[in-house]
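>> Question from a student workshop board

For tomorrow's exercise we were told to take the sequence and the ligand below, predict the bound structure, and bring the output to class. My setup keeps failing. Could a helper post the expected result so I can at least see what it should look like? The ligand is phenylalanine.
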Amino acid sequence: MEKRSQWGSRLGFLLAAMGSAIGLGNIWRFPATAYENGGGAFFLPYLFALLTAGIPLLIMEYTIGHKFRGSAPRSYGKISKGMEWLGWWQIAVSFIISTYYPIIIAWAFMYTYFSFGQSWEKADSATTFFVTDYLQLADAGTFGSIVPSILIPLILVWAIVLFFLGRGIKKGIEVANKIFIPALLVIFLIIVVRAVTLPGAFDGLDAFFKPDWSSIFDGKVWVAAYGQIFFSLSIAFAIMITYASYLPKKSDITNNAFITGFANSSFELLAGIGVFAALGFMANQTDQAVSDVVSGGVGLAFMVFPEIISQMPLPGLFGVLFFLSLVLAGLSSMISISETYIAGVQEKFNISRGKSITYGGGLAAIISLFFANQGGLNLLDTVDHFVNNYGVALSGLFEVVAIAWFAKSLKDFQNHADEISDIKLGRWWRVSIGIITPIVLGFMMIQNLRSEII
Ligand code: PHE
Ligand code: NA
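>> Workshop helper replied:
Here is what the output should look like for this input. Compare the format with yours to find the bug.
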């Protein structure tokens, strides 16, 4: 059998794992989620979720990948024959995400390019330009006119993603993340420092950190915290298992999981500070309350931020930096999502990596063109909602229940991790995965279903 590819260094693996974790979820999902769920008080459930689900599950997924040295279906299949389907389920969710995630990156690309070309000095016209452009995207009726401009950046995104995937683990994925992640960090730090020194920034930060303590008695807030942690750490997407399957034999799994978890959360906090400082500035400029300008998601990135940037000094520069940071964060996550099915298909059908990339990546790329053309945002929103509410909660729930209760593998995995890691796992780890996480995810499923009916 061919020798399994490996990361070139520990840092290489860590940067790749961080690259997957640090994504659009940190930049536009976390700040709004925290704000809506108790502000400063959200940090309590959030930290609890990180320590009882995020890091424990990262340790488990790293252990599974490292121990069985296979993509998700193969690794789960080695735990128990009946579990291979769970790997394919998680891969399916990742595959679906990989058909629309690149569209968002393509927009960010397009906006980076606009930032170069637009004369931002004329703040008003720049604002109008961005806002009408976004509205055109959002409005299926006028969608046709914008499509040609999204096609080129979309093709560019796929070219970059498939290029790095094609070069393999060490020379491709690792190299990409060694470039993208440090660059992202530097760029983002510049943006945050600029944001917190703008007039009004502290009103924004006040609004962000102001704790609403009553929220911690609200079950919904805890569900939001767990949901954010799962999505943000790319858990239950087959990603971390796949990446860990390329670890060398001697690897400190537990330590790596703590580093990944804390790095991602630090970036999340940094993004929250940057975003809310900028929102405070915008409120200040437009004589509004911060609560009136808060937003998240696509709207925050492509509608609110262009407006904020156009009112800043040196808008061209900060436009390029901000949208480039979205591109970098997005690309590194996109590479990790695609690697799940490329590795899975390659192993299952015993074909070359090149073929797997051509079929898997090619199919996803073609479907993404369809997303860019038809119905656009509405469809994208629906799929995203479905994936986040059911794909993740359900596959996370299946994962912990199957492993902890049916296969009863936790003790075994704990021994495996402890043998090669400095930090030894205690009972807290098994309780977190076997009891706390399933209860919260079960509650999350029920809540999602109920909100669908009401
Ligand atoms: N973890 C990434 C983020 O926070 C998103 C992501 C989810 C990436 C699922 C890959 C798979 O943005
Ligand atoms: Na994240």
